[in-house]
Amino acid sequence: MPIANYSVLAGSPVAGKVVTAGTRTHYQIRINAPGGPFLAVVNIKSMDGSQVLYAIREDFTPPDEAGLLALPMGMMPLESAPGGLALDYVRSESGGRPMIRKQEMTLLPLAGAKGVSDEERMLHQARAAALQNAVVTLLNMTIADKQGVMYGFGSAFPNDGRPTGIHDIHMNQGNPEDGHSKENGVWQDGALLIHLPSKGTWTAVFIAFQTESWKTDSAGVPV
Fold it and tell me: For residue 47, what are the domain limits?
């Protein structure tokens, strides 16, 4: 069964903060847009058995740039199908090449990895902060650009009967038979795209998990 309420949130980011609940740490970005404000919830730390892979693509061209620029601000449901705005890490192309490849992504180690030296532990801690630092930098750049827009792709979540935020901003297919396998599907992957009109640039933040396979069938199941 695919993720619920696959959507894209487009708006102006205004603030961000780190939120930790149990073993999970996310970076919450508050985004202003009609129908909001909204929250974009981004995974920024690895967990045991669920190490994060990430990539920051500068000078990025979205697969459907014109479609994104034509979107009204706010939360918009997306059809999980090719030919539209839906993203798929395995199948989407940008500029005649794959939108993102697994080998382009960086492994985010566990900050408190066991069985390593003090020197290695310090290196792990520094690398573990890399994604958070990158997201904060992009957030500040977007806020500084008076016309900057952040697009969050993922699963819209409700509060009081209306969508108030978006999460699952990461690859949503190729999960092994575990607690997340029920979320497998194609053309429903998440990402952050940042458009800075003053500079004429797009930047993409892609997030996946080491346990996810990049060889999937038509249902997003590992093959």
Answer: 6-209
